[in-house]
Amino acid sequence: MELTHAAPPADDAGRPVQDLPKTQLVRLSLYWLGLSSIFTGLTAILGGRIQFETDGPLYSPGSEGQTLFALNFAGALVAAFVQPTIGSISDYTISRWGRRKPYIFIGSVLDILFLYGIATSNTLIAIAAFMVLLQVSANFAQGPFQGYIPDLVPAKQVGLASALVGLFQVLGNVAGFGIGAAAVATDSFFLGTMALGALELATMVSVVWRVTEGRAAKPREGKSWVAIAREAWGTDILRERSFLWLVASRWFVLMGANMLVNFAVFYLAQTFSLPQEDTGGPNIMLLAATVIGNVVTVIPAGRISDRIGRKPVIYAACLVGGAGMAIVAAAPVILIAVVGAALFGAGVGMFLAVDWALMTDIIPKASSGRYMGISNVATATSGVVAVMTGGILMDATNKSLGYGQGPRLAFGLAVIYFVLGALLLRPVVEPARAARVAGEAAA
């Protein structure tokens, strides 16, 4: 295993100036595949257990959305606290493995244990408890991991690095969604759950074993670890106005992006009246269309944002993603829904490629673990808020307008979230491209 190295050369803003080999950029992004797959796949598997496991602890006809929300609510709150706190602590950590790797390794190993608990538990309370523990361990790893790109990537490679992050998040969502869909269609909920853990463990090894450490740890200057943990939530962050607006924008966009994943099983089973064994094919079709849209746009969006700026690309992403969800919501047949899913996937791919780059552009580099952790409060809570709002709307609509109309209204709510995400992006002040170009020339 590689040991900590001296900090790489950096510019006045703390940004590294030395190019990273392409293999390092890929390894930096690879762990996102494992991280993204877990909760995407687990949501599909839990949705299948809620909808179809008639003798299981989660079966709740007429209250499916509320049950899914109950399983995720406490875990999301815990994740919102753990990720920034551990990210901030990792900024100061000194170890033989560096300041990020110990957390990534420990969190990933614990994920396997807690996934096993979810797969084998037989009561709603036990499954919800293991969901909380899984959020603790996953965010214990993710908070420090997110500091790597600000630690290691120079300004001229940020667009490419962000696009690769987006690509591997997409691939992780694909893998998780595919594993979940297969588990639901074949009634293999235990195997599907454990497969998610195995995938994350494999991607973790590549990062921990081969990624070179970057920036040296911040000096503690006599601070206790408790004080450092509290520092993550210091009020000085309120001065970073663009950062706060970007987090708010990200929160709404990610809520819109979460709707299709969270409610796909209910959409097929309730809106189109498909039995369990027939959901696999249409689920895979929706997945494939989303993936194609993602892959087609994710790398070009990152590259284009280097030329025209990050915000215009995010605006376009919200427009395209919202239009796609509107088509899915109104689709009279599954084939039209698949077309909408492709458009939705294109918008999400654009967003994932560029949002990360803009966040990296505006945060203070020395405290990257803290700020990237705070930014992912949006990630940690967006899914559960999407489930809460979409689930409540779905259940209420099913009861008032007829069973099967609820998922359509939930997808319509996603369109509103994309619009709000675009509006909240307006106050964000993006660093001038000219300044970035000058910095790259100086480097």
The average pLDDT score comes to 84
What is the end-to-end distance?
30 Å
Low-confidence segments, ≥5 residues, pLDDT <50?
Answer: 1-6, 434-443
Number of helices: 16
CATH architecture: Up-down Bundle
The total number of structural domains is 1
Shape: globular
Concise overview:
The protein is mainly alpha-helical and 443 residues long. It has a single domain, classed as Growth Hormone, Chain: A (Up-down Bundle), CATH 1.20.1250.20.
Index terms:
443 residues; mainly alpha; Growth Hormone, Chain: A; 16 helices; 0% strand; globular; disordered N terminus
Topology summary:
Blueprint: H1 22-52, H2 64-91, H3 101-120, H4 124-145, H5 148-152, H6 158-186, H7 189-210, H8 225-231, H9 241-271, H10 280-308, H11 310-330, H12 334-362, H13 368-375, H14 377-401, H15 406-425, H16 433-442
Helix pairs in contact: 1-6, 1-7, 1-9, 2-4, 2-8, 2-13, 2-14, 3-4, 3-7, 4-13, 6-7, 6-10, 6-12, 9-11, 9-12, 9-14, 9-15, 10-11, 10-12, 11-12, 11-15, 14-15
Explained architecture:
With 443 residues, the protein is mainly alpha-helical. The chain has one domain: MFS general substrate transporter like domains (Growth Hormone, Chain: A). The chain is built from 16 helices and no strands. The protein has helices at 22-52, 64-91, 101-120, 124-145, 148-152, 158-186, 189-210, 225-231, 241-271, 280-308, 310-330, 334-362, 368-375, 377-401, 406-425, 433-442. Helix 1 runs parallel beside helix 6 (158-186), helix 2 (64-91) packs antiparallel against helix 13 and helix 14 runs antiparallel to helix 15. It is globular. It starts with 21 loop residues before the first helix and ends with a helix. The relative contact order is 0.16.
